[in-house]
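Progress note, sequence design subtask.
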């Protein structure tokens, strides 16, 4: 049942982004990006919704990614790079099956995003900005286990994200 609710959140999120990316607010953003539109910079991405085609190099970084698939990935049509990963949660914790806080889905996707994309993919061309976002109901972020895992990620990776111009942030499901 939790997976079904996550799929509903994913569909609502994608519908909201298609309808008006300016209305999809990023909470607790680590950059000046306040909406999805701020990240898209007027570009229209190729969207991979829970689909293995998101990873153009599936045999690279196997220890880090293996057979994992982010819930939503946005790829730039200009640079052909994945630029935004969105993990969606309803009630499930960040640690995926046997993964812990240190190697949660958001940690793994963030490292993959950083390694597989460039800050400025094509000089002089405006492209989609990079981001690792977590979409969940506001209440999810208040559950102790979830809050601890998310805080760990932000504490340990915000500095790195800022140095490489990658936005970290939250999308609250009830505002979609």
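Output:
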């Amino acid at each position: 049942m939790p997976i079904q609710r996550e799929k509903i959140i994913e569909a609502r999120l994608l519908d909201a982004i298609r309808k008006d990316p300016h209305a999809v607010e990023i909470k607790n953003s680590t950059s000046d990006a306040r909406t999805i539109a701020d990240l898209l910079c007027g570009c229209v991405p190729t969207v991979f919704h829970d689909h293995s085609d998101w990873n153009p190099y599936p045999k690279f970084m196997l220890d880090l990614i293996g057979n994992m698939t982010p819930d939503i990935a946005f790829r730039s049509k200009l640079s052909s790079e994945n630029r935004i990963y969105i993990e969606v949660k309803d009630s499930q914790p960040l640690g995926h099956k046997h993964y812990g806080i240190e190697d949660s889905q958001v940690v793994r996707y963030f490292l993959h995003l950083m390694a597989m994309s460039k800050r400025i993919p094509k000089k002089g061309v405006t492209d989609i900005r990079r981001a690792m976002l977590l979409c969940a109901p506001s209440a999810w972020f208040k559950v102790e286990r979830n809050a601890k895992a998310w805080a760990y990620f932000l504490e340990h990776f915000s500095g790195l994200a800022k140095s490489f111009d990658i936005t970290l942030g939250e999308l609250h499901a009830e505002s979609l």
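The mean pLDDT is 92. Work on this subtask will continue into the next period as scheduled.
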